[in-house]
Amino acid sequence: MGRRAGGAAHPRRGVSLSVAIRRRQGDFTLDVAFDAPNGVTVLFGRSGAGKSTVVSAVAGLLRPDAGRIAVNGRRLFDTADATDVPVHRRRAGVVFQEPRLFPHLTVRDNLLYGRRAGRARGDGPLGEVTELLGIGGLLERRTAGLSGGEASRVAIGRALLSEPDFLLMDEPLAALDAARRAEILPYLERLRDGARMPILYVSHNLAEVARLATHLVVLEDGRVARAGEPETLLSDPELVRLFGLREAGAVLRARVEAHAEDGVSELSISGGTLFLPRIDAAPGTPLRVRILAQDVMLATERPRGISALNVLPVTVVALRYGGGPGVTAQLAAGDDRLLARVTRRSAAALGLSPGTRCYAVLKSVAVAPADIGGPGGDAAG
Amino acid sequence: MLPPGSETWPELWPGIREAVILSLRVALVATLASLPFGIATAWLLARRRFPGRAVLNGLVHLPLILPPVVTGYVLLVLFGRQGPLGAALDQLFGISLAFRWTGAALAAAIMAFPLMVRAIRLAFEAVDPRLEAAAATLGASGPRVFATVTLPLVAPGIVAGAILAFAKAMGEFGATITFVSNIPGETRTIPSAIYAFLQAPGGERAALALVLVSVVIALAALFASEWVGARVARRIRGAA
């Protein structure tokens, strides 16, 4: 997006947002430290975990008690020498939970507000951004007449056109219904693959994490519980309690291999082949697939006479017993990890323990485009 | 208009015209000169927490509660030729307020100030501070946020406050007559003129004429405020 993002001057790797802050608010103490490299770093946590506080602190709207915030080596906040760059000089593109469009301006004037405010220079890529977000037809409209999805996209475009050094997105889809989310997610995926800057994206929605995250930071009670690759964290049975039993599930990188004549597409993963209803992507396309733990059944023998198309040979890596009747099993399928939820009774009946070889029956698989440049995206270099 | 052929008409007409023109001038000057102070005071009261805020709030509202004669008397004491502020103004700037139309404008402005501040303050309180925060993240400095986001959103309140103040200034009587007396051509505004006409035998017709003029001006101001307010609101909220 734009000169900054699209130009060759900024190498794709090595640019990052680094955050290490502490802040007390009554009984709640936020104490976090993490790095957000280029790409989308999702800050995940339940409500009250401190996600929005982090975003406000990085944006400069809220002052931490102590710590350091830097982007690409430029310090925005540092209690060591009392650095505190004011909000309007931080060059942060912020997308809030609500669109916060200016009601007295047209869509065009909202989009160009950053330029009028003197920050964005030159003739920024208005056309490029409106095309990316599909808002070219709205330019002369008043903001009051926009739908929720349109207003969200204008808010994202406005942040991009202010020529930020990094983006902060505080649950930008939280106020939208499922249909509007589905409308905007593809734009965010394009943004992730095109914008060469750190994007800190707050979410408590695992479907968004699975689709967008290139890096994941899990917050719990004001602290970083874990940080790392989303594939690793999402398939970690220890974190299932934070993700929620219904939502927990592994994310795998896959590649489209072929489309059969009966309408089934073949995807290769490291542990075998997946068969899915026709996917609209050319052979060779890298994809992300998400498999919910509760959609995986286990069998000690290869099941026969079953309608499920996807049965993978797996090895049990670890079992996590919670307080309830369920067990979360981490499974190895080739180089990938899957999660499965089974009952204690089933686990005992099947004699599951680390090292057990068995078969995973996948009841449902969700597919999303993979981020280009990730481990599965060698096609894009 | 008075019925033609009235014998008092030719003598009364100049006095009526004088009072109307003077009233318009006094009210206009009072409104425009106090508007910047009104906006600043409304902003302070709506957005800032500072020691003495309650005192400022009370001071602004005082003319609304005090008998107008008391306000006029306080002005006379402060701004009269021998008053501390009046003497200073006279010496430093050569401005004399006592028994001048400028004094009438000051009295009208003071009396209208609470109404003006109230309307504008409500508008400030209605502005979503999250919009201002969003503007700051887009690179706008504090003054720029104020000029490009806050002020446009407060505009309907400013228009409403100004028109309210103008109408109040047109009708101010007690403080004006106490402070600057009732001098034809200098401080005899419409209310003072009506009062004077009613004191003299045969003045009822002229008083009635001024009453009608007052009603017309008040209605015109009301319609103007509705029209401007609707226009501004449409511009700000956006025609859906």
TrEMBL record, chain A:
Keywords for the protein's UniProt record, in alphabetical order: ATP-binding, Cell inner membrane, Cell membrane, Hydrolase, Membrane, Molybdenum, Nucleotide-binding, Translocase, Transport
EC number: 3.6.3.25
Pfam families: ABC_tran, TOBE
Natural source organism: Roseivivax jejudonensis
One Gene Ontology term of the molecular function aspect: ABC-type transporter activity
Designated name of the protein: Sulfate/thiosulfate import ATP-binding protein CysA
Gene Ontology terms: cellular component: membrane
ABC transporter domain span: 12-246
Domain Mop residue range list: 305-371
Record InterPro entries: AAA+_ATPase, ABC_transporter-like_ATP-bd, ABC_transporter-like_CS, Mo/tungstate-bd_C_term_dom, ModC_ABC_ATP-bd, Molybdenum_import_ModC, Mop_domain, P-loop_NTPase
UniProtKB/TrEMBL annotation, chain B:
Localization of this protein: Cell inner membrane; Cell membrane
A Gene Ontology molecular function term of the record: molybdate ion transmembrane transporter activity
Domain called ABC transmembrane type-1: residue spans: 20-223
Topological category with respect to the lipid bilayer: Multi-pass membrane protein
Residue stretches spanning the membrane: 20-46, 58-79, 99-124, 145-167, 206-228
GO CC, one annotated term: plasma membrane
Pfam families named in the record: BPD_transp_1
SUPFAM superfamilies named among the record's database cross-references: MetI-like
Entry keywords, A to Z: Cell inner membrane, Cell membrane, Membrane, Molybdenum, Transmembrane, Transmembrane helix, Transport
Family: Belongs to the binding-protein-dependent transport system permease family. CysTW subfamily.
PANTHER family in the record: MOLYBDENUM TRANSPORT SYSTEM PERMEASE PROTEIN MODB
Known role: Part of the binding-protein-dependent transport system for molybdenum; probably responsible for the translocation of the substrate across the membrane.
Name of this chain's protein: Molybdenum transport system permease
Taxonomic source organism: Roseivivax jejudonensis
Gene from which the chain derives: modB
